[in-house]
């Protein structure tokens, strides 16, 4: 399974808001890179199978919480009103995904060091 973007949206039961920092270690465990643009939505770059991500999230969320994971194709379609830093992150990571690593991207874009 190659690198791909996933959107993760969570609906919390009970209180409408929870501290997203509680989920960050779990999100990091299956992400090459990620961003959170609301308290309950993430875009991640990952190679981990969606079923593994599902199981890791279920382990830390309440049994009454709901969530959906869906793949994003940002190369062909990404529209909306988001802060500039979100678009910058997506553009940077699209290039990294294409070349495998940030260093791979740098090797393609920068001249070799003497």
In a few lines, what is going on in this structure?
The chain has 4 helices and 4 strands, in the order βαββαβαα. A hairpin with a 2-residue loop joins strand 2 and strand 3.
Describe this structure in words.
The longest helix is centred in the C-terminal third of the chain and has 16 residues, at 84-99. The chain is α+β, with helices and mostly antiparallel strands and 114 residues long. Strand 2 and strand 3 (41-46) form a beta hairpin. It has helices at 24-29, 50-60, 84-99, 102-109, and strands spanning 4-11, 33-38, 41-46, 66-72. Helices cover 36% and strands 24% of the residues. It is built from 4 helices and 4 strands, in the order E-H-E-E-H-E-H-H. Mean pLDDT is 80; it is low at 98-114. The chain starts with a strand and ends in a 5-residue tail after the last helix. Helix 3 packs across helix 4 (102-109). The protein has one domain (4-109): Alpha-Beta Plaits (2-Layer Sandwich). A 4-stranded antiparallel sheet has the order 2-3-1-4, with helices on one face.
Unreliable stretches: 98-114
Tally of domains? 1
Strand content: 15-25%
CATH fold-type name: Alpha-Beta Plaits
Mean pLDDT: 80
Radius of gyration: 16 Å
Number of helices: 4
Structural class: alpha+beta
Largest sheet: 4 strands, antiparallel
Strand order, sheet with most strands:
2-3-1-4
CATH class: Alpha Beta
Q: Into which percent range does the helicity of residues fall?
A: 25-40%
Give the ordered list of helices and strands: EHEEHEHH
Count the E strands. Answer: 4
Distance from N terminus to C terminus (CA atoms, Å) equals: 36 Å
Backbone shape: globular
Architecture in CATH?
2-Layer Sandwich
